[in-house]
Amino acid sequence: MRSLVIALIVLVGGVAAAAAYHPPLRSWVTGVLHGPSCRHALTASNCRLCDPASADSPPCARHDVPAALCWRCDRGLIPAYRAAGDWCAEHGLPESHCGICRADAGIPTRTVSHDGHDHAADAGTADRRGGHDHAGHGDTCDHDHADHSTADNRQPAEHPGKTGTAPSAAKPAADACCPATAAGDTCAAGTGTPSAAGGPGIALRSTPRAQRPPSPGCTKAAQVVRLASPDVAQFADLRTVALESREFTRTVHCPAEITYNHNRMARLGSRAPGVLREIDGDLGERVRAGQTLALIDSAELASAKADYLTAAESRSFWQERHDRDRELNAQNLVSWREYTETQTRLNEAGISLSRARQRLRALGLDEPQIAEVLSTGDTSPLLAVVVPFDGMIVERDAVVGEVVDATRRLFTVADTSVMWAMLDAAGTDAGLLAVGQEALFRDDLGITRERSGTIVWVSTALDDRTRTLRARVELPNDDGALKANLFGRAVVQVQSGGGRLVVPRGAVQWDGCCNIVFVRQSAVAFYPRQVRLGLETDGWFEVLDGLNSGDVVVTQGSFLLKTELLKGEIGAGCCPDH
After folding, report:
1. What per-residue string of b and e applies to 465-481 under the rule 16 or more CB within 10 Å gives b?
2. d(CA 563, CA 552)
3. Which phi and psi angles does 306 have, rounded to 5°?
4. Which of the residues 88, 409, 482, 515 has the least number of beta carbons within 10 Å of its own beta carbon?
5. What is the signed CA dihedral for 112, 117, 118, 122, rounded to 10 degrees?
6. Could you read off the pLDDT of 535-561 as tens digits, one per residue?
7. Helix (H) or strand (E) holding 50
8. What is the pLDDT at residue 385?
9. What is the per-residue DSSP string for 376-434?
10. pLDDT of res. 188
11. Can you identify the CATH homologous superfamily of domain 252-263+415-493?
């Protein structure tokens, strides 16, 4: 008996679980438990979708459909719509409410407007409120559209005295918006989801907003923002400017750090172990090429000099022996064997002398000094630290009497007449730098005047930590005002030319998918224009498409016009839930 009860429980649980995912089975189970079910897989007596009175219920304040039938407020109705086959999977809403599908079939739709009246709506514009198209956004939009007086779908003539947005053409359902676009990314047209690959009007997430092309599905340019009166524009302090072509110079601003010229910089130390006997140089002193900065008492140098003198004497001896044996061999007074042995010893002595000379050169002695050792028989252990070029002592780590070795750095000498400015270019600016471009350096502390130089090197690799591109500018520093490790900004002129149409940066607004500029048509009418922008410099964008010379655009106050244009969309997106 116990096993039978357990089997029955398992059977009932399995049927219930299967019914959750199988509408016909769910309908059968519902009919068995609660009575016959309707085509929506609900109990016929409790189905709001089958009840004629539901269609006459008050409209939902947020979504302009009968409250009893609103699938956005009651997500539990979505399976019921699907069970009846009344669901548009393409646009994510019931087929009976999908203005796009019904428009394709030639069926007019009706919608409830903000004033509570039932208005016939043109096919393709159903369920649009406040200039915000929900035909293609499905059941995921939770916008509160209770008040859209300033961005209404109706013409301003129906609302005298109001400020609003009036579309001049029907808006397609492809004009979708989503949280991704609000953050600065472009949606794939008609999907409401960010595109994974670039295409016409579809920008990658990493593309700067100013460089993104207009979205092909956006029709905000077909709308117009109308003010109630010219006084509204004056009260909002809207300011305009007429566009014209002008000289356009593209500049790149980069952080920069001053360093010594490494081509004129030397780190000096002892070439052999020893003891510091004498120091003749201090920090900040100007030094000249060949000047001795320190003397090292080195036993290795004395040994190398002695070995060189010994090798020189040995070679001299065998050279005389060889000359004698050659004459005797010619007179048959010395055997050929003795003569060849002498010649071999002479060659070995020559090799030893060459090795001893190279050792002295490695210790820093030049040819005149080596010749002096040979002529005077000098075996002094004093090794000199010599300056290779004119410059200044910028570092010193030497004290008389201390023991040093060949790895120890005692002095750093640099020629400060020319300094390097190391630039770090980030983002798209990195690709604009090139050798030969002029650069202007300004230090952050204001301790020196502005200096101009030329880019002499651009790295072929990005920094693996900062992901920036390094470049080097050589700056004149005859007055010595530039200091190593000084931070500043470099302005690089990367492109210049005249006759280019430009627009102020303050006139450009991002609406979620496009860059728009408001063009004044009258004292109360402003049309949004989608623009494609080029380079930017000093608060101006180069205009590639969308505007013409002579257009009067709004600069100050353009953001207020954008809020009027997008008032119905502020607060939520229209992307499907994930």
Report:
1. eeebbbbbbbbebeeee
2. 20
3. -65, -40
4. 409
5. -70
6. 777 788 888 888 888 899 999 988 888
7. none
8. 94
9. HT----EEEEE--SSEEEEEE---TT-EE-TT---EEEE-TTEEEEEEEE-GGGGGG--
10. 37
11. Efflux pump adaptor protein, beta barrel domain (2.40.30.170)
Q: What pairs with residue 392 in β-bridges?
A: 286, 414
Quick check: 205 pLDDT over 60? Answer: no
Let me know: does 202 contact 188? Beta carbons within 8 Å.
Answer: yes
Judged on CB neighbours under 10 Å (0-12, 13-18, 19+), 90 is: middle
Q: How many helices and strands (H and E) does the chain possess? A: 11, 27
Those residues with Cβ within 8 angstroms of residue 179's Cβ, 6 or more apart along the chain or in another chain: 573, 575
In the block, residue with structure tokens 């060659």 = 347
- The pLDDT of residue 441 is 96
Q: Is the pLDDT of residue 477 over 80?
A: yes
List the structure tokens of 295: 């003397």
Q: Where are the domains of the chain?
A: 1-37, 38-126, 252-263+415-493, 267-413
Mutual angle of helices 299-330 and 367-376, in 10-degree steps: 70
Q: Which residue has the higher pLDDT, 202 or 342?
A: 342
When pLDDT is cut at 50, 70 and 90, the band that residue 159 belongs to is: very low
Identity (one letter) of the amino acid at 411?
F
Tokens 């005149």 locate to 368
Provide the token pair at 323.
Answer: 């000359």
The per-residue pLDDT for range 405-422, each reduced to its tens digit, is 999 999 999 999 999 999
In whole angstroms, give the CA distance from residue 555 to residue 574: 29
Third-level CATH fold of 267-413: OB fold (Dihydrolipoamide Acetyltransferase, E2P) (2.40.50)
> How many residues appear in the chain?
578
Rounded alpha-carbon distances, angstroms, from residue 242 to 222, 230, 490, 529: 22, 19, 32, 15
CA gap 477, 332 in Å, rounded: 76
Instruction: DSSP for 66-118, please give it.
Output: BGGG-TTT-TTHHHHHHHTT--BTTTTB-GGG-HHHHHHTT--EEEE-TTS-E
Residue holding tokens 């005077």?
Answer: 376
